[in-house]
Amino acid sequence: MGACFEAAQGRVLYARISRLQALFPQQQTQDSAIEPLRIPRAEHNISRSDISPATLKVLYTLKDAGYEAYIVGGGVRDLLAGLHPKDFDVATNARPEEVKRLFRSCRLVGRRFLIAHVRFGDEIVEVTTFRGPIGDSHDRDETGRILSDNVYGSLEEDAFRRDFTINGLYYDIRDFSIVDYVGGMEDMRRRTLRLIGDPELRYREDPVRMLRAIRIGNKMDFRLDPASAEPVKRLAHLLREIPPARLFDEVLKLLLSKDAVENFRALHWFGLWDELFPDLGAHHEIAPEQTRAFVEAALANTAERVQQDQPVSPSFLFAALLWAPVRARAEDLARGEDHPSFVALAQASEEVMARQGLRVAIPKRFSMPAKEIWTLQPRLEQPRGNRPQRLLTHPRFRAGYDFLLLRAQGGEPVQAQAEWWTQAQAGAMAPLPAAAAGVVAEEAPRKRRRRRRRRGGGAVPQAE
Ligand code: ATP
Ligand code: MG
């Protein structure tokens, strides 16, 4: 790989011109078109055997029909760095309808900008038509965010619309060369993540780029160029303009990742974390060390599972992230007059989840199980009745138990309970652990209370 970068360096003049262009992307016109840096096949390490068969099929089909076809973005970037790309994105001058005509299984998706999804078996290849330059025809909101994006363009124009220079490299299927308009090869060599163009303008156009900077920087272990890092703290608040559903996708990519802990720390440092999880931010000020340690332990756990190719659950992760505010809110509520603490916990769960949804929309299929994990905690803390082991068959038992372990690890006084459940699962019948060690107490189930009353015992619920 060294060779390809040296070759690229030899043509640094082109890259410099490209860099100038990168600074003034809006002023580009057809007249000012500049020859890109072209790295021939012999001077880079990307081989067709690294590319998925479906992607190759798409590229060749487009080429044979007379269109331009390139791999762009993460696929090129990761292969150059010797990593395995998770997928390949194709860019072409064919319009979406033209792409659709070429493939049997092709769906056009997206409202603002149509993208073709071409399916081969299990694999979907995303095919995007070159985007044109940002101009007056693009609607913006008052913060500078682009609201409409429907102008097609040339390869060169498309390159300047990409976010980072290392994401703006194109692998040309005609001659297997790499086309570089934006100085991406040089930044690969320098291991630098740099926004194309004016950083503040580019973040304002799409504030999600701040999150992408952190994710891609950590994934590649590249340094974020100081000029690209500088505006982030100032502009972090712009994330509030982003639809919560889009933020959910980005948050998952950041946190269900082998770099989860580093991503969390960087998000926190740049002030982005508090925009994504304001409740948790508020709680940081109350118990900063403990909350942070708990969140980091959960993320480290996730990262390890990702690295070992084990399944990871968004519900468990969100349960862990939001546990501190849920707990704090439940404690507040329980101080009120007639809130039994189990009810307080259930109410706190609803409140915190609903507020969180205003920033990062957690779909029901994840938020429901997360709430169940929380409300299982009192039952796990105080196993009781004739057969507490019945809880072992609860569909959410395993997640609830893992969560109890995490709490114990995080220093909450639930060690004995966690240990008891560990033994109960192994079939050992230890004496029930002492109650009231945990934070939340469970309201006695109504059914049983009634039965006891009928027996005339006037039973006091076991824990309230
Ligand atoms: P990975 O797939 O590994 O997460 P990626 O860079 O390929 O990383 P994608 O979301 O697949 O990320 O995007 C593909 C390409 O589209 C990017 O490499 C970049 O060129 C461009 N892109 C994606 N999001 C943006 C954005 N918000 N602004 C500008 N360009 C973007
Ligand atoms: Mg990608």
Fold and architecture overview:
- Helix content is 50%, strand content 8%.
- The longest helix is centred in the middle third of the chain and has 20 residues, at 288-307.
- α9 (208-220) runs parallel beside α11, α9 (208-220) crosses α12 and α20 packs antiparallel against α21 (415-425).
- The chain folds into 2 domains: 2-196, Beta Polymerase, domain 2 (2-Layer Sandwich); 264-430, cca-adding enzyme, domain 2 (Orthogonal Bundle).
- The protein contains 22 helices and 10 strands.
- A hairpin with a 2-residue loop joins β5 (115-120) and β6 (123-129).
- Residues 1-18, 25-30 and 436-464 have low confidence and may be disordered.
- By secondary structure, it is of the alpha+beta class.
- Bound molecules: adenosine-5'-triphosphate and magnesium ion.
- Magnesium ion is lined by residues 73-74, 87, 89.
- Adenosine-5'-triphosphate (ATP) binds next to α9.
Write the layout of secondary structure elements.
Elements: H1 2-10, H2 12-23, E1 37-39, H3 53-64, E2 69-72, H4 74-80, E3 89-92, H5 96-102, E4 106-109, E5 115-120, E6 123-129, H6 155-161, E7 169-172, E8 178-180, H7 184-190, E9 192-193, H8 199-205, H9 208-220, E10 223-224, H10 226-235, H11 244-255, H12 260-269, H13 273-276, H14 278-286, H15 288-307, H16 314-321, H17 323-335, H18 341-356, H19 364-381, H20 397-409, H21 415-425, H22 446-454
Parallel strand pairs: 3-6, 9-10
Antiparallel strand pairs: 1-8, 2-3, 2-7, 4-5, 5-6, 7-8
Helix pairs in contact: 8-10, 9-11, 9-12, 14-15, 16-19, 17-18, 18-19, 19-20, 20-21
Adenosine-5'-triphosphate binds near residues 86, 87 and 168.
